[in-house]
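Justification of resources, computational component.

The compute hours requested in this renewal are based largely on the per-chain cost of generating structure records like the one below. Each record pairs the submitted sequence with a full structure-token output. That output is archived, and it is also reused by downstream analysis tasks.
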Amino acid sequence: MNREKQSVLLFGGEENLGLPVIRCLGYFSGIPIHYAAIKKTTTRFSRYLSSFQLISGTTEQERLESLIKIINNTGSQVLIPIDERSVRLVIKNRDKITDSINIPHLADLKTFHQMVMKNALNEWLESNDIPYAKIWPIPTDVEADIPDSLTFPVLFKPVWDRGGDIDALFINIFRCREEMINYFGENEISSDDYFLQEYIPGYDIDCSLYCKEGEILAHTIQKGFILQPLQYSPAIELLHNIEFLDQIEQIINKLKWSGICHLDFRYDEREKNYKLIDFNARFWTTLLGSLVAGVNFPYLAYQSALGETFPVPEYDDTHFVLTRSAIKEMFKFNKEHSYSFRQTGLYYALQDPLPEIFKVSSLNNS
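The structure output for this chain reads:
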């Protein structure tokens, strides 16, 4: 098999998630890459793309038909969905799609929903005796129905976080009862969209994975070292942690999980344990950090879709800084962590500059 001729169609992810996937595949592998998205973004100007296609339609059926048409028109041999919306569509219509193209390992629809819906995730963690954060539904009457078990500060979070989606809902924190009452009084909040979650004193630690039926085929572990309140860290340290990985292996094995995922944990300083906060069944913003460490997750997904096997990849302890933060850090004399230019998103952006140039241009013209 001549791997150079096996083209790939990437689907979904738009700007924040799509571009890192393109760069992981394009910079190292030379695979012909086609990209299908629901909206036009500056990602389409990447030099690694052979074509950019717009998914048409508003209903799931219309978008599925459009996707299959693009598969046939591009002649792609592998389809890789990038975000949770596109993963769900491929899982749900797996039989129809695999008539036309190969796909990497993916979970079944029931397991997918169980993990990505945060309230359902908590139920699963509790029923399997795995550490979890307490959650509460949005009170019908915020002044009268606040449960006694709820303590402040408390997080206000979306039930389903579509990472990388420009229409994604947001996270907030209420530090006292009055702050929460005032916020709900000024905003219309749907209990179907949001819930409340306990704030856990400690630190964030994440694990990126590619799995097959409960077996971990590849992973990297990361912690942030430039922190943003209620957001992912734009600068990460890639590291090893055997105790942490043991807990993740238990979760993945119990789920029999298949596919790409990025798990967000919080280390609880009170209870001295790791609590799974979010299970993201998609690629992640700091994907290039895993690449710098030695694991090219999109390429592994591509290989497995073609039926190829590979040994579990080793990875290095290292650092990675996203482009914008790398530029800001350039002007600091005393950096907390040392890292090279190749360990930044800026390095990859300069190899593929047009998406960033057009993005800045569109912001200046808006």
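The first strand starts at residue 8 and ends at 11. The domain at 3-103 is CATH 3.40.50.20 (Rossmann fold).
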